[in-house]
Amino acid sequence: MPFNKEQYLSRIGISQPPATAEGLVRLQSAQLQAIAFENIDPLLGVTPSLDTASIVRKLIHGRRGGYCFELNGLFGQALDALGFRYTPVLARVRMGQPEGGPRAHLLFLVETEDGAWLADAGFGGPGFPAPLRLETGLEQTMAGDAFRIRQDRLFDELVVEKHTPDGWFALYGFDRASVRPCDLEAANVVCSSWSQSPFPFHLMMNRCTPFGRISLFDTNFTETQSGTSMTRAIETPAELGEIIRNDFGIDIGPAPLAAIAARLSFECVDAPA
Length: 273
Known about the structure:
Layout: H1 5-12, H2 21-34, E1 37-38, H3 40-43, H4 52-61, H5 68-81, E2 85-93, E3 103-112, E4 115-119, E5 132-133, E6 140-142, E7 145-152, E8 157-164, E9 167-174, H6 181-193, E10 204-209, E11 212-217, E12 220-225, E13 228-233, H7 237-247, H8 254-263
Antiparallel strand pairs: 1-10, 2-3, 2-9, 3-4, 4-5, 6-7, 7-8, 8-9, 10-11, 11-12, 12-13
Helix pairs in contact: 4-5
């Protein structure tokens, strides 16, 4: 099942964008709003397949989401099909720490007529909703949030940071080491099954909206608009299923929903009919 440009554009709800900086912004923003970050497979003990046919089958035809290797795997196929010039890189996730872990997050450096950009349609945390200019020290504001890229000379990395009430929060750091398919396969196994990875142990979902962002961590559902977040607890598997389907746009059946509910230790794990 090869990548089909028309099917992809239909899935994310836009017409074909030009291979320009403006087109790149449209493309990343549309995918982040249409296809959710979700780690259902790793949570249920499945290592996602990264071949093109599997990603297309799951994310486009199966109306599922995925995590970074799947989401940015699809995004990379789109960049290629639409004529963008790009380079994949692997980042070390920091999430507020002074240094990152293993290279386990995929993203892209994209060259346009308007300079170089950092494009990422697969970060499930508090990521940037549109590409960032690849320029150190420049504060870039979008959807009410401020981001910047700084040089970390200690680790010889560029670090993407988001501004919070407590100051600048490091998301991840990256260098320009070449990325091969075997690197992605190894990182995929680490992320989906390593005891120190969060993905086999917690339900994590995230989707950008026209107004902000929605996210799910285990049984806590959070909506963020204009920098203000509201979180509520999910009480039942039925409510969880409605949120997964209606808010995150993920097609999930009774059996996987029951398995997720069991992992999250709901008192009642029977799935709705």
